[in-house]
Design a protein that fits this description.
- By secondary structure, this protein is mainly alpha-helical.
- It contains six helices and two strands.
- Strands 1-2 form a two-stranded antiparallel sheet.
- The longest helix is centred in the first third of the chain and has 19 residues.
- The chain is globular and about 35 Å long.
């Protein structure tokens, strides 16, 4: 069990670094978000491997409405943080990204969307954070 947790933690760290730090493509996406708000955001690589139910998405919407997410985010426009639709445009509905973004909600973060800091939300459970992420990713405008 300990080895599994270590491997999982290591994989998560690698994914967070890859998603958060990225190479030139990520840098250009950050610049595009800040300097060219009308430029489309490119979807990161990854297969869609999660199909949330309507009930799950409703639960995510309700959890979001009771959270402080809307202090920094709006659904369609950038506020302090990125618009939820921009997040959905960047990340596919993929179990790895869902876990990484849920961890980002719980632990906080910085750098994926410029210099804005995402404060930690340690009271949010992993399950609730993942449900919230699935709701946000369902807002992709395609």
């Amino acid at each position: 069990m300990h080895a599994f947790m270590f491997c999982s933690a290591t994989l998560l760290a690698v994914v967070i670094l890859a998603v958060g730090c990225g190479g030139n493509a990520n840098h250009s996406e950050k610049s595009a978000v800040r300097e060219h708000p009308n430029k489309p955001i490119e979807k990161l690589a990854g297969d869609v491997d999660v199909v949330p139910t309507a009930e799950m998405l409703d639960k995510g919407r309700v959890l979001m409405s009771y959270s402080d997410c809307f202090t920094c985010h709006k659904e369609t426009d950038r506020k302090r943080g990125p618009a939820f639709q921009d997040i959905a445009a960047r990340y596919p509905m993929n179990s790895n990204y869902i876990r990484v973004l849920a961890k980002r909600i719980i632990l906080g973060g910085k750098g994926s969307w410029g210099n804005v800091v995402m404060p930690p939300h340690p009271a949010v459970s992993e399950e609730d954070a993942e449900t919230m992420v699935m709701y946000v990713l369902s807002l992709d405008r395609k």
